[in-house]
Amino acid sequence: xxxxxxxxxxxxxxxxxxxxxxxxxxxxxxxxxxxxxxxxxxxxxxxxxxxxxxxxxxxxxxxxxxxxxxxxxxxxxxxxxxxxxxxxxx
Length: 90
Fold this sequence. Notes:
The protein is built from 1 helix and 3 strands. By secondary structure, the protein is mainly β.
């Protein structure tokens, strides 16, 4: 939910208010009580990414590790069962 900036056109009181985007704009000034509030257009705070996983280098394909063990068969999983022989005989 965003924080909106408001200013009263009668008394000049300015403040920020945390509300949903679906909520209607405030109209009554909390300081003077008059219906003279205007929602100000803000520049926004921008996007802030915290933590790991937000750098382009985190998503690059890493080279496959070469292990000395068995390699899976090319083209898929080696645990697949072969096609039924009964349908091939007909």
